[in-house]
Amino acid sequence: MDMEHVWLLPAIPVVIFAVIGLFGRLLPRGGDWLAILGMGAVTVLAALAIVDFQGDNIAVWSEEWMKISDGSRVVELIEISTYVDSITVVMLTAVTIVTLMVMVYSVGYMAGDSRYGWYFALLSFFAAAMLTLVVSGNLLMLYLAWEGVGLASYLLIGFWWEKQSAAEAAKKAFITTRIGDVGLLIGIILLWRGSGSFDIQEIIHHAESGGFDQTYLTITMLFLFAGAVGKSAQFPLHVWLPDAMEGPTPVSALIHAATMVVAGVYLVARMLPVFDTVLIARDVVLYTGLITAVMAASMALVTSDIKRVLAYSTVSQLGFMFVALGVGAVTAAMFHLLTHAFFKSLLFLGSGSVIHATEEQEVEQLGGLRRKMPATTITFTIGAIALAGIVPLAGFWSKDEILVAAQEGAPAIAYITLAATAVLTAVYSTRLVLLTFWGEPKNRSVHEHAHESPPVMVIPLLILTALAVVSGFVALDGVGEALGFAGGIGEVVYEGAHGHAYALNETVAIGATIASLFGIGLGFIYWWGCAARAEAARNWAPELHALLVNRYYIDHLYQATIDRVILGLSGVVGWFDRRVINETGVDGSAQGLGYFGLRLKFLQTGRIPNYALAMAVGVIAIALVAFGTN
Amino acid sequence: MSDLNFDYALLIPEFILVGTAILIIMADLFRKELGLGRLVLPAIAALGTIAAGAASLAYIDDVDDFANVIAIDNYTTFFRVLFTVVLLVVVVSGYEYVERNIRHTGEFYALLLLSTVGAIYMAGARELLTAYISIELLSFSLYVAVSLAKTNPRSAEAGLKYVLLGGVASAMLLYGMSLIYGTAGSTQYSEIAAAFSGGTSEYGFALLLGLVLLIAGLGFKASAVPFHMWTPDAYEGAPLPITAYLSATSKAATFALLLRIFAGPLLPVIDQWQWMMATIAVMTMVGGNLIALQQTNIKRLLAYSSIGQVGYMLMAITTISDASASALLVHVAGYLITNLAVFSAVIAFHNRTGKEELDDFAGLAETNPYLAMVLTAGMFSLAGMPLLAGFVTKFILFQAAASGGYLWLATVAVIASTISLYYYLQVIRRMYLLEPARGESGRWRLSPAGYIATGTLTAGVFLVGIYAGPLFTVADRAARVLALS
Amino acid sequence: MSDGLSVELAHYLSVSGIIFGIGIAVALSKRNAIAVLMGIELMLNAVNLAFIAFARLGGNFEAAGGDPLAGHVFVVFVLTVAAAEAAVALALAVLVYRRRETVDLDRITLMRW
Q1: Range of the domain at C19
Q2: So what's the pLDDT on residue A583?
Q3: Can you give the pLDDT at residue B65?
Q4: For residue B279, which of B423, B408, B135 has the smallest C-alpha distance?
């Protein structure tokens, strides 16, 4: 397929979304086959495109979308445009393969659900939005797709909206990411204002030629980064992702591990040349990623819900990617994004298999599943090892890249923290595997009816396992060349000034491997068997444990802030209206006080004279403004 | 006054509207004698409206300014078409409601038709007196229309509140106009502009006072904070179709007038009014959206939501330029479509259930998924979600403000619009999350008219959201009349 | 006479302003719908006075190719509209009175908040 026609990729799922959404009830099996066939076609097309892609043939296609003109002059021309370079190629690979796998898997997982067809319609919609996001060549289109994936995520997290917690989680995810989105929108408008264009390449060009004011650009990039922080669940907006686990597990694998949450990484990677022109902004990226990585990894240690552990792990790994971006290593970040997409979706689908079989997701209730679910156990364990970063699995290569980059580009303290986080990663991966699959069953009745999942779920697991094993090898020159990229991963991901051919740094690699093995060893020490040592450790530092279990009290803090500030603010408006306008101004008799005093939120008295008085006050106010400004 | 050879054909749409109104009143008088069915009056109204709309389309690009009294140009035509569409929607989606809740249906339709004429001439006025008379034609029709639900005590109260406060506002507006007349020496826009471009220092105080009162008076009609207090009460008390009409035509007409005045005769004195306008824009955006958070009645919620929208539109007036004028027209059109979609759905809901509290919408996704979908699309569009009309139009509007050097104002608008998402989600949450009330879990359908109205409007919301190009072109051509540089 | 508003005009405008102020005060302070309506009528009459004063004595008119007639015409229309307004408002007041047996605006508060 020609690169010029990548717009076909999102177009196919959009059509399928419309067809299933409108006529799903009439189609056999709710139209799931249609969604899978469509996604299969997209995957094949994307694969053809990727094979056709050489590191240097950046493809651009554009078409007029809307035009604002005054008389003869075109004031603003907004185009639908696609832009494909190596970053896009990596994203396309991850998105298409994982989406296809998740769709196939969902046939088993969602079987018998009352809104089965609608689920596949939503998945198609998500795929369309995600692919649009990835191929779009201008920020406006990117923003549309950005909101589109957010909407899909909202609908899918709340897919079982009958459950109160699911609906609440959907709302939380939506509003939290929207906070970031506001930043993104402001950032986009600021970039447009400074450069006069929405086109990403033009903006980069404008920035590199020094067209922006430094301070202005720094603020702008921070706003833009806020969007990435929201979407990629970075500190301090990470709170929504663990709650988002209320959605169906395949959705978590797709949206909240492999694709949507990496949109922030993608955005920063895409805009990195602009970040490069203002160094403070990049430091913010670096330290945000670092704090998030440590924090989330530590929370993963104590979480008992299997999916939430994986969610924190995702947050932490995204932190790794941002660290890589913060030191300017796009290659490492995108590489890790790719491998992470495979092994993390594998882990999520594996956990889905467990949940499907046992209807239980608390590790305290699981254990000993290895005999009942051998395939799941093996695939999940391989995924966990890949996550821990043991050679030669995928996670090893990409994490190594990030560590090398951090060693070269970041202060020592950051590098050490990151390495420590890698140890933590190994610890919680081990813990999760041990508690779920090994040891003795902790809950007999759960264990009784556990069973291996049907083939339609196991086969995607196997394919993803294979990818989790081999996807790291693209880094090697030989493999890279065989796939058509002469320069290995450096060429796959990023050509130009920042790219470099992959070179294994032996010291770092050996050090990291030892660290990971150490972490795995720690995991075994604490959680092997009856986990008595873990119990002891918990009792040794109960405050620390409470801090972690309560997620550093961040969620509490936000709730309190929302309660106090937002409601307080509207209370102040109400108070002003009530006291100043109603009582002081009109109702000196205070007759209304007792009646209205109870009702903090009521703003309107219902009385015409009060309304008229408000108007008079308004006239005086704007008159003051008028005379004050003249 | 010497030459009265104007192109009177340009006024045919209004002739049709007024003629239809008279015809309806006559038909209503002799309803029993003629044995007219209950569908006849709305049918006449709808046909007259369609005829007027079609007639306006016939005069695109024709211009006559009737000795500087009323200009019929693309700007007027833009609003003419818009207002006839609104009228048609209100008639079609509201006739069942009217049949049930209003005793004298003839008056209802006649008043709507007449007020639309007022609204059109508000957009077309090129002279203060004409502007004033048009405003009052619209307002008086609405004062009466608001109080038409004679079985509902709230309706009469809403009418009384509206007329008394409207009277105060009219007096302020008139005083402002008199001061502007006094300082400029004329009531014609073109001559006011000429007088003001020659310098205004002599009349600094009188002019400023005039501007203050003019903005206050028009702010009332547009329901800008703090002149908005009548809005929620009038919305709540009015019959639902009138509420829809208030939120649509009445708002849009006020902005048509505001834009003509502030982009024309008052443009030379922009330094004097810009900060005032910015102040009420901010108060309106923030106030409207904050108070909306606390509402429990769908009409009042939509009232405050529309106040918030007014804030965004006032921002466009503040940052007046060719881009923001055109953006304002786009936003007004997008807002009308979205708001009417929501109101059509609410009317259809009320026809079935007779209720209008937010809690009554619980479980609508179960009892009527279609209507829930329409409301969700409408609410998301009002909140400014992409792929829906609200996003595109708001984006263009905010962008125009930002590029006009009012970044802080655009930022406030973005924040206010984020706040608004919360209360829109409250409605959506109730529909999808909560169980329907006991004994009301059965599925139900809309009337055919309900399906047509909501379906068309929802399609419009998506169309504008996805492919807004044609709307931009039309708005551009309309805004060009204002000849801003 | 030569610069700014002439003395005579200023006098007229002062009276007009005072009447307008009294009108606003009445409209704001009275609790009776009819009395509020009277306040509004006062405000409108102040407007009429201002229009006539400007039309007769406005200093700026010759310079701007002024149009004194417009002011007179305005007054005629304002009078007409004021009459219409009184009719509508009184009708609505009667409508409310029939139902509630009061036109005390502090008690007509079915709708609030």
Answers
A1: 9-100
A2: 44
A3: 81
A4: B408
How many Cβ atoms are within 10 Å of A57's Cβ, its own excluded?
Answer: 10
The answer to whether the Cβ–Cβ distance between B407 and A190 falls below 8 Å is yes
Contact A103, A35 (CB under 8 A): yes
Q: How much is the pLDDT for B128?
A: 93
CA distances from A494 to A14, A224, B285, B317 (A): 30, 21, 45, 46
- In angstroms, the Cα distances linking C96 to B111, B152, B299, C89, C93 are 20, 11, 22, 10, 5
Phi, psi of B125 (to 5 degrees): -60, 140
A619, closest residue in chain B (CA to CA): B216
Cis peptide before B448 (omega within 30 of 0): no
The CATH number of residue C74's host domain is: 1.10.287.3510
Number of structural domains in chain C: 1
Listed by number, the residues of chain B in 310-329 with a beta carbon closer than 8 Å to a beta carbon of chain A are 322-323, 326-327
B275–A70 C-beta distance less than 8 A: no
Question: What span, in angstroms and rounded, lies between the C-alpha atoms of A359 and B151?
Answer: 56
CA dist., res. A305 & res. A298, Å (int) = 14
Least confident range of A374-388, A460-474, A476-490, B87-101: A476-490
Evaluate whether B80 touches B120 at the Cβ level (below 8 Å). Answer: yes
The answer to whether the CB atoms of A606 and C29 lie below 8 A apart is no
Q: What is the 3-state secondary structure (H, E, C) of chain C?
A: CCCCCCHHHHHHHHHHHHHHHHHHHHHHHCCEHHHHHHHHHHHHHHHHHHHHHHHHHCCCCCCCCCCHHHHHHHHHHHHHHHHHHHHHHHHHHHHHHHHHCCCECCCCCCCCC
Tally Cβ neighbours within 10 Å of residue A411. 13
Query: Is there a cis peptide before residue A236, judged by omega within 30 degrees of 0?
Result: yes
Query: What sign does the CA torsion over B175, B176, B178, B183 have?
Result: positive
Question: What is the C-alpha separation between A90 and A50, in angstroms, rounded?
Answer: 9
CA proximity to A149, closest of B414, B386, B418: B386
Q: What is the pLDDT of residues B14-28, one digit of tens each?
A: 999 999 999 999 998
Select the residue of C70, C89, C111 nearest B237 (Cβ to Cβ): C111
Of the candidates A65, A151, A612, which has its C-beta nearest B469's C-beta? A65
Return the closest-CA partner of residue B292 out of B424, B428, B389. B424
- Tell me the chain C residues in contact with residue B231 when contact means C-beta distances shorter than 8 Å: none
Distance of CA A364 to the CA centre of its chain: 27
For A71-154, strand residue ranges (E) read 73-84
Handedness of CA A257, A259, A260, A263 (dihedral sign): positive
The pTM (predicted TM-score) of the whole model is 0.70
Measured between its terminal Cα atoms, the distance across chain C in Å is 53
Place of tokens 């873990």: A534
Q: Would you say residue B89 has pLDDT above 90?
A: yes
Preferred mutation among B173, B180, B209, B212 to probe A, highest tally of A CBs within 10 A:
B212
Q: What is chain A's alpha carbon radius of gyration, rounded to the nearest angstrom?
A: 26
Q: Is residue C1 part of a domain?
A: no
Residue A556: count of CB within 10 angstroms of its CB = 11
Q: Residue A41: what residue type?
A: A
Lowest model confidence (mean pLDDT) among A353-357, B440-444, C29-33: B440-444
Residue that the structure tokens 């409206």 belong to: B49
Q: Are B432 and A167 in contact (CB under 8 A)?
A: yes
Q: ipTM value of the model?
A: 0.90
Residue C77 lies in a domain: yes
> Are the Cβ atoms of C44 and B156 closer than 8 angstroms?
no
- Alpha carbon B447 to its chain centroid, in Å, reads 26
What's the confidence (pLDDT) of residue B113? Answer: 95
Q: A622: which chain B residues are within 8 Å (Cβ-Cβ)?
A: 212, 215-216, 276, 279-280
